[in-house]
């Protein structure tokens, strides 16, 4: 047999190998999206002499009626006995998800808890071309089906949660008073930081769904000690050794997941626990909740 006659068979083998590798990668990414993990992180945003605070940070659950295992996993987190719970939006992704969210978060009742909403709490998700994320932050269509976001706010407030959409509040922890200021989702331009801005004169946390720089810059300038955010999904598909390829906002890719410094503030961006129901895949970026142990600086 001549050398040239082997070329078609080699091409076929190569194509078959790529197809198998692609299928295996897709299967792994689907499995990883359901492999929920708890990360434990220690950072030091507290003033000297302050007692440690344990914060459970949840984000981007994207609850739908089919995600029962996620609901039960979140319920079990109450056993961590945090001092504070912060949920940074995109709690639901379906018109019937309000009772699911209330069920998932019910065991945390009695723990000081705060939340903001994200775009997927307001509008039902829709299929998009994943390559479009490389062109910049996703756009939103106000004609999309609206979700019962007001019922979600009412239900959580009835359970004792503090809503921080373009508002500020203070809560008492065993460690003392904590001031909080939050914005509605910057990704859909509902943020109004001016309504809560002002120089910080006490321990203060900032809460936002999407970590857009205009919000982070303003909070850092005001002296906020810690900013908590979600939205990025940690990039959702990460390249080992490279990290996130996109953030779906204007923050740099290095801050797409985890703890960092942003100006004078500490920043923690959660990679989140869910995905859009139309893209239930993650790669090198497991779904996560984070137990933050906050300690005093110095």
Return the string of H and E elements: HEEHEHEHHEEEEHEEEEEE
Overall structural domain count: 1
Structural class: alpha/beta
Just give the CATH class: Alpha Beta
Structural shape: globular
Largest sheet: 6 strands, mixed
Low-confidence stretches: none
Numbering strands along the chain, what is their spatial order in the largest sheet?
Answer: 1-14-2-3-4-5
CATH homology-level superfamily? Metallo-dependent phosphatases
Do you know the CATH topology?
Purple Acid Phosphatase, chain A, domain 2
Radius of gyration: 21 Å
Please, what is the average pLDDT?
A: 92
In total, the number of strands is 14
Overall CATH architecture: 4-Layer Sandwich
Helix % is: 10-25%
Strand percent estimate = 15-25%
Termini distance?
75 Å
Describe the structure.
This protein has 298 residues and is an alpha/beta fold. It has a single domain (8-296), classed as Metallo-dependent phosphatases (Purple Acid Phosphatase, chain A, domain 2, 4-Layer Sandwich), CATH 3.60.21. It is built from 6 helices and 14 strands. Strand 10 (238-239) and strand 11 form a beta hairpin. Helix 3 packs parallel to helix 5 (149-158). The longest helix has 26 residues, at 7-32. It is globular, with a radius of gyration of 21 Å. The model has no long low-confidence stretch (mean pLDDT 92).
């Amino acid at each position: 047999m001549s050398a040239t006659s082997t070329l078609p068979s080699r091409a076929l083998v190569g194509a078959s190998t790529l197809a198998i590798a692609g299928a295996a990668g897709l299967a792994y990414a689907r499995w990883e999206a359901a492999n929920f993990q708890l990360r434990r992180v220690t950072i030091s945003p507290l003033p000297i002499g302050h007692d440690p605070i344990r914060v459970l940070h949840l984000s981007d659950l994207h609850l739908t009626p089919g995600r029962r295992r996620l609901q039960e996993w979140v319920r079990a987190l109450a056993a961590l006995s945090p001092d504070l719970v912060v949920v940074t939006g995109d709690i639901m992704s379906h018109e019937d998800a309000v009772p699911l969210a209330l069920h998932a978060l019910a065991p945390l009742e009695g723990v000081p808890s705060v939340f903001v909403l994200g775009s997927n709490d307001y509008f039902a998700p829709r299929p998009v071309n994943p390559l479009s994320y490389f062109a910049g932050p996703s756009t939103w269509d106000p004609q999309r089906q609206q979700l019962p976001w007001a019922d979600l706010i009412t239900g959580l407030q009835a359970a004792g949660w503090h809503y921080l959409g373009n508002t500020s509040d203070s809560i008492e922890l065993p460690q003392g008073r904590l001031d909080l200021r939050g914005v509605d989702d910057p990704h859909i331009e509902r943020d109004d930081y001016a309504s809560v801005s002002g120089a910080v004169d006490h321990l203060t946390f900032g809460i936002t769904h999407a970590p857009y720089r205009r919000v982070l810059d303003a909070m850092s300038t005001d002296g906020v000690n810690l900013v908590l955010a979600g939205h990025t999904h940690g990039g959702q598909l990460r390249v080992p050794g490279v990290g996130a390829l996109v953030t779906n906002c204007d923050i740099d890719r290095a801050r797409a997941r985890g703890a960092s410094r942003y100006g004078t503030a500490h920043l923690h961006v959660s990679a989140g626990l869910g995905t859009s129901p139309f893209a239930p895949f993650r790669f090198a970026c497991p779904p996560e909740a984070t137990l933050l142990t906050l300690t005093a600086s110095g």
